[in-house]
Amino acid sequence: MLGFNLFGRISKFLFDSRASGGVSSHLPEFNEHEKDLVKLLHNLERSRSHLQRLESSGSKGDMVITAQADVISLQQEVIAALQHVNGSSHGHEKEEPVQPTNVSAHPRRRRGAVSSESMGPVLVSASISKVVIPKVEQEKQKLASVLKEMVIFSDVHDEDIHALVDAFAPEWCAAETVIMRKGDMGDKFYIVDKGVCDCFVASAEGGSMLICTVTEGKGVGELALLYNAPRAATVVARTDCYLWSLDRGTFQCLVLSATARRRRQYKEFLRGVPILSNLTAEELAKVADVMEAKWFEGGEYIIEQGEDGDTMFFIEEGSAIATKNAGPGRPSKKLMDFSKGDYFGELALIRNEPRAANVIAVSRCKVCIIDKQAFVRLLGPCLEIMSRRIHLYEAFLD
């Protein structure tokens, strides 16, 4: 652990830096590992303050998500820096990481309360791999299948679905147990593995009215993962039920950690795209924040000639070809090949015209997509170079 002396020196230094408006690059009273830690703590403090300002002003959407991802990423870096400081202070002694407790058999519980098995402490800010509840393969496949059918998980990458599946905890409840009550503040989402649950709301006569039934393989309470809102209905177990649950804190940590990880991956990929070489690190980060990834199978059309174009594409993995329709009964003409780092689709955005050609995936292809609004706002420094490339397209299209 951090010694009281070092903790006191860091606290005093950060207090003084607030007054002076910044952290000196010299930091003479600290060794190299301690300097790294001080700078990270200072940056984390600033990121948290920025996030608090956004939240208090009512900001929503990408700005808040990006700020949250920054905080998560910096927390991970602080943990790594703390390990370096502890290692340099205490030789090669290492503290064993805390592991979740294995979930054992689920005994019958008293009627009237949902009970979950103990997971043990979890360092959610350190790594999403820390939250792993053992499951057999059939259970994992079943949970993943349920999640992919739900709207709030429809855009989640497969690797992140697997991380979410690992984090679900088993719970058992007896028939007539109230799993959630209308109006209560809830923070858990449930998937019914075995059993049946009924959902009720108050009727006009003052009683309860059944609005739907949740059967095996269905979920209930997913809105609690997104925000702290009262439950919209009362859910009661009709039979003994075996459930899987995921709490909001774990869900948000997993999603934000995945967002921070993808942001780093996109930035690394974008650094290798020649057309973006003139962008600063800050500009690249902004482009990475607005990108969305999508997979296309070999032979699948990424864009089609004649359709309206409102997006631009960068190939991250795989290859594609551009073709032009030659007319009824005539084969399409191949125009050019695309591979990793190449881009296409910008012509329709620059000229505000329909797509001039098809682009078809040759092999399984992963593309990063940027929409027209972000294209104009963020890729201004690249527009001149892109405009020069239009002449190349025209030579192929003629």
Question: Can you walk me through this structure?
Answer:
The protein is of the alpha+beta class and 398 residues long. It has three domains: 4-89; 115-253, Jelly Rolls (Sandwich), CATH 2.60.120; 272-397, Jelly Rolls (Sandwich), CATH 2.60.120. 39% of the residues lie in helices and 21% in strands. It is built from ten helices and 17 strands. Strand 5 and strand 6 (208-214) form a beta hairpin. Helix 3 (62-89) packs across helix 6 (248-271) and helix 6 (248-271) packs across helix 7. The chain starts with a helix and ends with a helix.
Provide a quick synopsis of the model.
It contains 10 helices and 17 strands. The chain has helices spanning 4-20, 32-56, 62-89, 137-148, 158-167, 248-271, 281-290, 346-351, 372-378, 383-397; strands spanning 115-116, 169-173, 178-180, 188-194, 197-202, 208-214, 219-220, 234-237, 241-247, 292-296, 301-303, 311-317, 320-324, 333-338, 343-344, 358-361, 365-371.
